[in-house]
Amino acid sequence: MGAVTTDNSVDRADRVPKQDRSRATRQRLLEAAVACLAEHGWAGSTVSVVAERAGVSRGAAQHHFPTREDLFTAAVEYVAEERSTALRALFPQGAAGDRRAVVAALVDLYTGPLFRAALHLWVAASNEDQLRPRVTELEARVGRETHRIAVDLLAADESRPGVRETVQGLLDMARGLGLANLLTDDGGRREGVVAQWAALLDEALD
Amino acid sequence: MGAVTTDNSVDRADRVPKQDRSRATRQRLLEAAVACLAEHGWAGSTVSVVAERAGVSRGAAQHHFPTREDLFTAAVEYVAEERSTALRALFPQGAAGDRRAVVAALVDLYTGPLFRAALHLWVAASNEDQLRPRVTELEARVGRETHRIAVDLLAADESRPGVRETVQGLLDMARGLGLANLLTDDGGRREGVVAQWAALLDEALD
After folding, report:
1. What span, in angstroms and rounded, lies between the C-alpha atoms of A114 and A112?
2. What is the mean pLDDT, run by run of 10 residues, along chain A of 206 residues?
3. The domain A10-205: what is its CATH number?
4. Which residue of B has its CA nearest to A135?
5. Looking at the predicted complex, does its ipTM rise above 0.90?
6. Interface check A171 vs B, CB under 8 A
7. Contacts of B99 (CB under 8 A, 6+ apart)
8. CB contact residues (below 8 A), chain B span 33-72, against chain A
9. Where are the domains of chain B?
10. Assigned CATH for B69-205
């Protein structure tokens, strides 16, 4: 964050950087929370651990996120939105004839730290009652948005029978590939699967 | 377990039921371990909890499985083998023209308590060093066997280019569908995806 360079209003100079600071702190906490979940899982992820990682006091962290559930569901949602925006930016003209590149980019959504973090959150939610409704709702929202992006980028015509289910199956496959990458680097096998199914998908969508 | 009905050899009468008893105890422990993992996750799954659930003393449980890792990896492997055998038995003549039924049965492998238990084990292994190599090796072995069954039942000719990757992608999709079913009952959506992808697969394999 830069130093304050305007002094035409003490009030404004005082207010704006405070908002900036607050936003930057929030963002640091969210990014630290996803990294923490991905590395240590739900059991090892507390507000204190994340605050320390983000270089923020525990009190400041709790000001932004009163509960552990607030922090981690907000974190997964925030990073998922960042990734969606980045994905759309990668293909400003949509698939433009290169569906294989789009399929590869969609699959990439499920192989990084975000997917790993989300997976820990889902699995924890399946056993913890206070987490479950929050994560279920989050998953539905992120899933709908990812589906929308996939349909747009693949130039898929969902008014045709079967097209919706074809795109859904592709995203299920991407999620399954993410899971297969959890314990070992599955990149070589994944590349072959993506190439083959991108070709099948191309036929199915035209 | 039946009573001892032969008395022509005290030695034999004494030995056989003991082996039976031991095998039955082992099996009860393995089944209880998978149910426990599926319901309570890794953190809530200890040898003591499983022994109690199986109605076996903690000492007897530890005689069969000296460590927690031994018990839970053996349990997931045992139940996976049981399911593989049951799946082959469902289609004694292979696909016999009904690939859609085979796809549905393959997907079913990933939506029950076994998948839920395996998922908890995988996720725990991603953060626990003493569990990780065991689970990685187990996952590879079970994955190879499931692939072999899928190829057989689908009558897929892997000597043709792309067929291997087509079958792999199907199993990745099945795994992703299992994950989507973790927090909510995803059966309705899943049915549509399975029908559509079975049709795509049918075209791709012929």
Report:
1. 5
2. 45 67 93 94 94 96 95 94 89 78 93 92 91 93 94 94 96 96 94 95 89
3. 1.10.357.10
4. B183
5. no
6. yes
7. B154, B198, B201, B202, B205
8. 39-41, 43-44
9. 69-205
10. 1.10.357
